[in-house]
Amino acid sequence: xxxxxxxxxxxxxxxxxxxxxxxxxxxxxxxxxxxxxxxxxxxxxxxxxxxxxxxxxxxxxxxxxxxxxxxxxxxxxxxxxxxxxxxxxxxxxxxxxxxxxxxxxxxxxxxxxxxxxxxxxxxxxxxxxxxxxxxxxxxxxxxxxxxxxxxxxxxxxxxxxxxxxxxxxxxxxxxxxxxxxxxxxxxxxxxxxxxxxxxxxxxxxxxxxxxxxxxxxxxxxxxxxxxxxxxxxxxxxxxxxxxxxxxxxxxxx
Length: 253
Fold this sequence. Notes:
Layout: E1 8-11, H1 17-29, E2 33-38, H2 41-53, E3 60-64, H3 70-83, E4 89-92, H4 106-133, E5 141-145, H5 152-156, H6 170-190, E6 196-200, H7 218-230, H8 234-237, E7 240-243, E8 246-249
Parallel strand pairs: 1-2, 1-4, 2-3, 4-5, 5-6, 6-7
Antiparallel strand pairs: 7-8
């Protein structure tokens, strides 16, 4: 088993976009050991090489995690347990906004997005929770990446540029609403164990996820994720969404 002297952070979907930018920002501090997760070994190793080539410091370990497959998640947890013994911070970043099948039916479209964005995240957290519980780190966290599009108030708002009249996206919106509720319940249930569950909302970013469109760069979008993972205190962040330079309380709306 490897000797870990710095907090161990696992980031899903870390081979591109917001996940890669998050890994880059955390690695640049030199204060964390990172598990760089992607759907394939090739993608994970490619991301690690790119991070190393950019001059980032710290330990970078590629790991394969396909959120659509429980066996992939379980295999990754076993690897982390065997090599490190525990996990300190989990960042559930990976997600999709539509089915990869252009001919998918409505049911298939919902199923594809929920498999990754909701079921995959729920299984990730449940599977890695024993490793978080085994950690002696003083500031254990689970960060779930959400979106303002998942907030009911924004969908209804006549003044928001992201309301449902401008952006319908019912499949993606509902998947993030589900993650918000899952996170709220987990935050309450894990508070007594001093494991913080917090939401991060990166905003509309120029990544492959959004077809290269957006008002922010991936680097800007990653900053709320990084802050949710390593800044502030559990008391300050409990029940909050970290978004840009402020924290928003998440109630039903």
